[in-house]
Amino acid sequence: MAGAGDGTLEREVGAYAASRSGLLEGVQAFQAWLEDFGEASAEDDLRLYETLEALRHDRLTVAFVAEFSRGKSELINAIFFAGHGRRLLPSQAGRTTMCPTEIFHDAESERPYVRLLPIETRRTDIPVSEYRRDPIHWVTLYLDPADPEGMAETIAEIVRTKHVPLAQARELGLAPQDGSAPETVEVPKWRHALISFPHPLLEQGLAILDTPGLNAIGAEPELTLNALPAAQAVLFVVGADTGVTRSDLEMWNEHVARLARRGDGQGVIVVLNKIDTLWDELRSREEVEAAIERQRQEVAGILGVDVAQVFPVSAQKGLVAKVRGDEALLARSRLRALERHFAEAVLPRKRAILREAVHRGVGDQLDNARSVVGGRLEQARAQLNELRSLSGKNVAVLEDLLKKARAEQATYLRHLQSYQSSKRLLQKQARELLAALSLERIDRRIHAARVEMAKSWTTAGLKRSMRTLFDGL
Ligand SMILES: Nc1nc2c(ncn2[C@@H]2O[C@H](COP(=O)(O)OP(=O)(O)O)[C@@H](O)[C@H]2O)c(=O)[nH]1
Ligand SMILES: [Mg+2]
After folding, report:
1. 190 has pLDDT over 90
2. Which of its termini does the chain have fewer beta carbons within 10 Å around, N or C?
3. How many percent of the chain have pLDDT more than 70?
4. By C-alpha distance, which of 222, 205, 98 is closest to 157?
5. Which of 91, 280, 311 has the most ligand 1 atoms within 8 A of CB, as the residue to mutate?
6. What's the average model confidence in pLDDT over 289-303?
7. Which pLDDT belongs to residue 3?
8. pLDDT higher than threshold 50 for residue 373
9. Tens digit of each residue's pLDDT (9 = 90 or more) over 401-422
10. Which atom of ligand 1 is nearest the CA belonging to 98?
11. Dist. CA 157–CA 28, nearest whole Å
12. Are 206 and 278 in contact (CB under 8 A)?
């Protein structure tokens, strides 16, 4: 898609990535808030942690499942890696003995790589998921994106095989199933491959799982039990050249039908590949289209799916058309219709599923926190109202106090005035009193009284003189 895409897939994968990081930020913010708020129980903490981990490691995985040689690898090249101008994944005629291959972007590695798990690890009972945790068991080859040729060569390592003695093949659980006992058996060199690659879609969290055919997929039960059910979308590929074969049907029934019947079964898309084998220069376009449509109906009938879920394409012509920029050929390959369906029908629904998962994980806690906070808010509001009414009262009380204070001030001022005038009066009287009490005047009066008294011969006259003295004083 890169370089030759119409952008729908990029946009939807981008929207998925944005939705995931939005959820991640939201849950992280909630976690931080709960810490501050001090409301989280140990169980809440654990559930939050698990939800965050699931979001952090969530990859949008698209698994390509089919018998060998149906064109899975070609389809992956055509949809995702046409921008490189050449085949990135090895796609070849005949029976490819490939190991399950995951293509993604490992943000923790500075260099793109191919990491390969040797087939010998099958001697142990340890599943691939355990080995994933420890890079020491893997052989790492680095890729140079500036050199597409060299890169394709390195990636070709994933289809390497080797011949081992029958006993050793038995040990690996890879002895022939048909009862034959050859001296040596051709076995894949690797058990599993991880390809980390810088590509806009992969950097957004898209992961592609390319699986080997029926036999090889049966050899790793982990694929069927874990990897496929965990994938957000499964593309099941059949060939228009062969129709639905017995082994296609076995593969469908054993590994895919279950997923198609799940509630979110629309995540399973059936691809009728190699429609170019029905192109016939001697027949009209309409006849060819009718033949494709007939086969599409037939595939839907055999697999028991809605015909709208079956997408006829030519991966090979689609890849060529994208590399050459041939729009007419691209239209004929019908690759865009498949990409658009994937982008517009599968991805948005997966986004909703992601949201639901987060809701299941932390929804209860959120509701809980919301009601606790709601209660507190209610309480705070009530207090605020009370304070507001009190503050109204305060104003009234203050005004009252102020009025009283003003009245008191006026009274005081009035008293002050009358006090001052009283004071002045008092001072005047005091001065008159002091003047009245002056010694000189007293002396004069005593002297006059004494003269009066000396002149009085009678007691009554004496008394009268005394009274005159005191009255004068
Ligand atoms: N005619 C035709 N051949 C195809 C198409 N897609 C893949 N092939 C061929 O089918 C063979 C197997 O393809 P491959 O991608 O390796 O299939 P896988 O085993 O399912 O991964 C190769 O020779 C491809 O060139 C197609 O659309 N049309
Ligand atoms: Mg392949």
Report:
1. yes
2. C
3. 92
4. 98
5. 91
6. 96
7. 40
8. yes
9. 889 888 888 888 887 777 777 7
10. 19
11. 41
12. no
**85, two tokens:** 């101008």
- Ligand 2 centre to CA of 272 (Å) is 16
The amino acid at residue 165 is P
- Residue 240 dihedral angles phi and psi, to the nearest 5°: -70, -20
Average pLDDT, stretch 437-463?
Answer: 73
Give the C-alpha distances (Å, rounded to integers) separating 357 from 141, 365, 366, 404.
36, 14, 14, 69
- The alpha carbon of 226 and the centre of ligand 2 are apart by a number of angstroms equal to 20
Residues in the ligand 1 pocket, defined by CB under 6 Å: 66, 68-74, 91-93, 96, 273-274, 276-277, 314-316
Q: Which ligand sits closest to the CA of 79?
A: 1
Q: Do residues 141 and 155 lie in contact, with contact meaning Cβ atoms separated by under 8 Å? A: no
pLDDT band at 1 (very low <50, low <70, confident <90, very high): very low
Q: How far, in Å, is the centroid of ligand 2 from the Cα of 304?
A: 25
Q: Which residue's CA is minimally distant from atom 7 of ligand 1?
A: 71
**Residue 220 — very low, low, confident or very high, per pLDDT cuts 50/70/90?**
confident
The two three-digit tokens of residue 191, written as one number: 């058990």
- Residue 31 or residue 237, greater confidence: 237
Determine the straight-line distance between the first and last CA of the chain, rounded to whole angstroms: 133
Would the pLDDT of 75 be above 90? yes
Q: Which residue has the higher pLDDT, 395 or 268?
A: 268
Buried b (16+ CB within 10 A) or exposed e, 34-72: beeeeebeeebeebbeebbeebeebbbbbbbbbbbbbbb
> Does residue 47 surpass a pLDDT of 50?
yes
